[in-house]
Every structure is written in structure tokens, then in C-alpha cells.
Amino acid sequence: MCKSGTDDQILSGTEQNCDYLVDNLFEEAQKVGAICMPPTTVKNQVDVIIKLWKNGFTVNDGELRTYTDVANQQFLDSVKKGELPFELRKVFDKEEVDVKVEDKKDKVYLSSKKPMFHPFSGHGYRLGSATPRILSKVRDDHQGPDNKRHLPLVPLNDLEPITNVQIWLADGERIIQKFNVSHR
């Protein structure tokens, strides 16, 4: 069993050092005939890259897998014996599999993947009504005899661009006023 500790922490004698585990894995694989080869291309060949980190290992840059998990220990034992691990046999049953092991035991694995963005996929509900309900009308002192609102005059400069601003009130009335685009 391999247990990783901090750089300052000394592991007890019953637990193997991760450096020893990684070195042992390479030595055992070489004993059964594994050799270091430059990458080559073969048709119907699948490359599987196993990276051995200080705090675990990854397969094809997937999630970090700990050395302490029993299933992961069986996986590494198969690699150590020069056999294709069972879980890879299930996935790649018709292809030739080239397993490459990279020694990264001096580095701690840090996930560089950002969490995937999942946009909102639920249902929305409208709160309230589309138009506000009028409870009562209050008499407006600003309305004149012709029932129109008298808006304060805004001095316009005809040499500058002019725009209209439109406001819809809760009672459905709309007010339109002209402004220069430089007005605040």
C-alpha cells in the first residue's frame, strides 16, 4: 500500500514510499519484457498513457486515481506484470493497445480542468402579472382641462441630435418628451 504524505512527513515502515512504488512498477515491467520505445504509429493501435504522480495516477489524463484503492492496486499490478488491465480489455477489445507509463513521481497532480459550465435548464415561472393591476385611480393635480399632462419644457438645441424618450405609466398612459442626446 502506498500512502502519500507531505514533503516533511516521514512515512512509517509498514507503508511503502510512493517513489519506491513507482520505481518498482518500472523494474517489474522491465523484468517481464517491457522496453522503453520511441512512439510509433501502427494502424488500429490505441495509445493509453498512464501517468504516475506523487499522489496517485491518471489514465489518459482522466481523473486522479489513488494508490490506496483496491481496484487501482489491481490495475497497477496488471501493468506491473506486463498485462493489459481488465478495464482496458473491456474498452479496447478489437484494437492493439500500446500502454505508455510516464514517471511524474516528483510532482503532485493538480487538476487543471475548469468546472464545466452548465447553463440553466430548468423551467421559469412568471411572478406577478404581465401588467400591474390598478387598485384605484388618484386624481392628478398636474392634469389640465384637456386631461393632458403638462410637462416642463426642455430647451432644445436644433443644431444637436434630438431623440424622443417614451415612458409608459402603470395606468396605461404614455408620456413622450423630446431631448437632445446631450441632456442628462
Automatic annotation (TrEMBL):
Pfam families registered for this protein in UniProt: SEP
UBX domain boundaries: 158-184
Cellular component, GO annotation: cytosol; nucleus
Residue ranges constituting the SEP domain according to the UniProt record: 45-110
Protein's UniProt name: UBX2A protein
Alphabetized GO MF terms: ubiquitin binding
Entry-linked Gene3D superfamilies: Phosphatidylinositol 3-kinase Catalytic Subunit, Chain A, domain 1, SEP domain
PANTHER family from the UniProt entry: UBX DOMAIN CONTAINING PROTEIN, UBX DOMAIN-CONTAINING PROTEIN 2A
A GO BP annotation: autophagosome assembly
SMART domains cross-referenced by the UniProt entry: SEP
